[in-house]
């Protein structure tokens, strides 16, 4: 099995690109890239019909390694470029990958409006609760009371729940997974890409270097154990009391609704506008 | 599908309407914008017309998003445009830089209004000239054009697309409140008389395609996403394959090419108009709506015995140094009237280097510069 997965990844990597990659050993980004590749492979999509667009940060470097139509945009803006691409060429499958700061701080406005607008895009948001690339400053998902490079005395702001934010903003499909629960993650990404409408997968990931070390979880194993112990499936959470759920987060599908898709609605506009 | 051009051969139009029609005639099929006066009519016209020609109009959540969307659409192979005014233009600077570095064709219309910040909504101004050239960070070349009549709004918008497509560069089209809200008759050229330039797409098979090739023109062929040429687009400085690099030689080659491709095309990029310049010994150098007042002032000055002429700059950047230099050598006096504190005046002085007497005339009170004011300045020293 492991050998097969490795083989599959090599089918999609850009071997003429100058490896090694920029990610730290043990980073969750590699797990997510593997999961994304498996999802795309299982969907039988060709490399030519995939666009992978990113913003800025560690997550932003993902597109350069894979052999799709790839776009590394400006900080927080991946969804705006993706919107232009999708409307210009609706036949393409457009996937964006962003970080928590990228998608919900500097790109927060684009994120909620993309969810509201319902263009058929997939947003993969890697939530490692920190700005990793710039050196561990707090992000919109850094937990209250934890420590960051710019919160040396403890963090006094409150974190966004990205998946819940996406649900409220109107995303057609919202899922949350972790880099520990990889098989669930494979299924979530596959379902999100397949979904007709704006789909979001929030992935809880580990930045043991910038977040973990400052918060007594200085290696990937400790962080994955934390994910294992704090993630609860949506189904299980329904049977739990709010007290039991206090320090937990849910994983699975949080929303899956049928909504009119922007490109199809715009086709109707073209008919209405007529000659 | 509706015809792109209006059915009538002549039409009474507002400048903003003519910009929208010019864009459609040039082949623009994607527009993203955010409401702002005095540019909103461009959005309104295109929201109605784009779907009729199979194109797409989208109103985004802000100007940052508008700029991102038009770059995305262009990378997918569709000619695209946005339109805004000063405050929105400031927000667009980030992604304008991305379009420069990724060499993505697109047209950005800025209908200038007076004042800084939210300024003077919506009196005319020309305060964004240097921002159009230098507004985005780094050191990238860009093309900036200025329109002065409603007919210009149509014609120069087409030229803006042509230059953008040919040179793979964002083109900023500067209008101002006066030009954009003036209504006058436009006589449309026949569709077959409109020159349309499309970007060059690769003719080689995908495995031979070098997306940022350092070729003799400095302009690499551009493949659209989804056509089998899978490549990487990034705002990071990149090598010929499109992959990020910090290798000094590759960085130097890349940056030099961005400048070289424009330098090699200056003969067609630098557009000017001259009026009564043949025997002139006094000249006005003007652009935008001020050029119209200047033209009238030149006629009036001639009737009073002063041999005046007008050099109208349509291309502001790359600054048409040689063409300006010719006028400076010819004339004993040159006046540069502007609705700012002298942004193009400084460019003219940079070229002048003491050759002749160059004066500026500026209004920054939100009021238009009239022919009489320019005439007064022209006759001042007679």
From TrEMBL, chain A:
Matching entries from InterPro entries are given as:
2-oxoacid:Fd_oxidoreductase, THDP-binding, TPP_enzyme_TPP-bd
Keyword Oxidoreductase attached: yes
Among the GO molecular function terms of this UniProt record, one is: thiamine pyrophosphate binding
Q: Which Pfam families match?
A: TPP_enzyme_C
**What keywords are annotated for this sequence in UniProt?**
Oxidoreductase
From which domain of life does this come?
Answer: Bacteria
Query: Per the database record, which ranges form the Thiamine pyrophosphate enzyme TPP-binding domain?
Result: 56-203
Per the UniProt entry, what are the Gene Ontology biological process annotations, in alphabetical order?
Answer: cellular respiration
Q: What is this protein called?
A: 2-oxoacid:ferredoxin oxidoreductase subunit beta
The record lists the organism as: Candidatus Desulfacyla euxinica
From TrEMBL, chain B:
Q: Has the keyword Oxidoreductase been applied to this entry?
A: yes
Please give the InterPro entries that the UniProt record associates with this protein: PFOR_II, Pyruvate:ferred/Flavod_OxRd, Pyrv_Fd/Flavodoxin_OxRdtase_N, THDP-binding, Transketo_C/PFOR_II
| A molecular-function term among this protein's GO annotations | oxidoreductase activity
Key words of the record? Oxidoreductase
Supply the Pfam families for this chain: PFOR_II, POR_N
Q: Does the keyword Oxidoreductase apply?
A: yes
Pyruvate flavodoxin/ferredoxin oxidoreductase pyrimidine binding domain location: 22-249
Pyruvate:ferredoxin oxidoreductase core domain spans which residues? 280-374
What does the record list as GO biological process?
response to oxidative stress
- Superkingdom, taxonomy of origin: Bacteria
NCBIfam families for this protein: PRK08659.1
Name of protein: 2-oxoacid:acceptor oxidoreductase subunit alpha
């Amino acid at each position: 099995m492991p050998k097969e997965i490795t083989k599959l990844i090599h089918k999609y990597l850009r071997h003429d690109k100058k490896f090694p990659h920029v990610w730290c050993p043990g980073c969750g980004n590699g797990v997510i890239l593997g999961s994304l590749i498996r999802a795309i492979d299982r969907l039988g999509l060709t490399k030519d019909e995939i666009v992978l667009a990113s913003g800025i940060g560690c997550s932003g470097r993902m597109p350069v390694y894979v052999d799709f139509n790839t776009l590394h945009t400006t900080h927080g803006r991946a969804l705006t470029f993706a919107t232009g691409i999708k409307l210009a060429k609706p036949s393409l499958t457009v996937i964006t990958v962003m970080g928590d700061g990228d998608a919900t701080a500097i790109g927060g406005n684009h994120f909620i409006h993309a969810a509201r607008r319902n263009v058929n895009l997939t947003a993969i948001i890697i939530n490692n609760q920190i700005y990793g690339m710039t050196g561990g400053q707090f992000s919109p998902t850094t937990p209250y009371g934890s420590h960051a490079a710019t919160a040396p005395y403890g963090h006094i702001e409150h974190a966004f729940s990205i998946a819940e934010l996406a649900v409220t903003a109107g995303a057609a499909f919202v899922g949350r997974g972790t880099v520990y629960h990889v098989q669930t993650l494979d299924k979530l990404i596959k379902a999100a890409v397949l979904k007709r409408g704006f789909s979001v997968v929030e992935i809880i990931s580990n930045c043991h270097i910038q977040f973990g070390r400052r918060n007594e979880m200085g290696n990937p194993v400790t962080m994955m154990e934390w994910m294992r112990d704090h993630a609860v499936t949506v189904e299980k959470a329904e049977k739990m009391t709010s007290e039991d759920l206090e320090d937990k987060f849910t994983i699975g599908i949080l929303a899956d609704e049928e909504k009119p898709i922007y490109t199809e609605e715009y086709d109707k506009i073209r008919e209405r506008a007529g000659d | 599908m509706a015809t792109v051009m209006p059915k009538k051969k002549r039409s009474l139009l507002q400048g903003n309407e003519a910009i929208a029609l010019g864009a459609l005639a040039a082949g623009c099929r994607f527009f993203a914008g955010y409401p702002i006066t005095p540019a909103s009519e461009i959005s309104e016209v295109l929201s109605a017309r784009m779907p009729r020609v199979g194109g797409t109009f989208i109103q985004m959540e802000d100007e940052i998003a508008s700029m991102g969307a038009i770059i995305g659409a262009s990378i997918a192979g569709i000619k695209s445009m946005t339109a805004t005014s000063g405050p929105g233009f400031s927000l667009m600077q980030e992604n304008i830089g991305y379009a420069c570095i990724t060499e993505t064709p697109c047209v950005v219309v800025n209908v200038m209004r007076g004042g800084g910040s939210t300024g003077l909504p919506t009196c005319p101004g020309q305060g964004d000239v240097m921002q159009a050239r230098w507004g985005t960070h780094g050191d990238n070349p860009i093309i900036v054009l200025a329109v002065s009549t409603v007919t210009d709004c149509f014609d120069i918008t087409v030229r803006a697309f042509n230059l953008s497509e040919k040179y793979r560069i964002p083109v900023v089209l500067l209008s101002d409140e006066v030009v954009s809200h003036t209504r006058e008759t436009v006589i449309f050229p026949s569709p077959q008389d409109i020159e349309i330039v499309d970007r060059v797409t690769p003719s080689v098979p995908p495995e031979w395609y070098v997306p940022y090739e350092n070729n003799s023109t400095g302009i690499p062929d551009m493949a659209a996403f989804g056509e089998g040429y899978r490549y990487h687009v990034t705002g990071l400085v990149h090598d010929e394959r499109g992959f990020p690099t910090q290798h000094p030689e590759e960085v130097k080659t890349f940056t030099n090419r961005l400048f070289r491709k424009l330098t090699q095309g200056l003969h067609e990029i630098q557009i000017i108009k001259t009026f009564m310049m043949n025997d002139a010994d006094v000249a006005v150098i003007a652009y935008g709506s001020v050029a119209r007042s200047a033209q009238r002032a030149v006629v009036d000055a001639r009737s009073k015995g002063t041999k005046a002429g007008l050099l109208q700059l349509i291309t502001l950047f790359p600054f048409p140094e040689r063409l300006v230099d010719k006028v400076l050598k010819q004339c004993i006096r040159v006046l540069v009237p502007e609705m700012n504190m002298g942004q193009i005046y400084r460019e003219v002085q940079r070229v002048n280097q003491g050759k002749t007497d160059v004066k500026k005339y500026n209004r920054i009170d939100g009021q238009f510069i009239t022919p009489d004011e320019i005439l007064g300045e022209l006759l001042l020293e007679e």
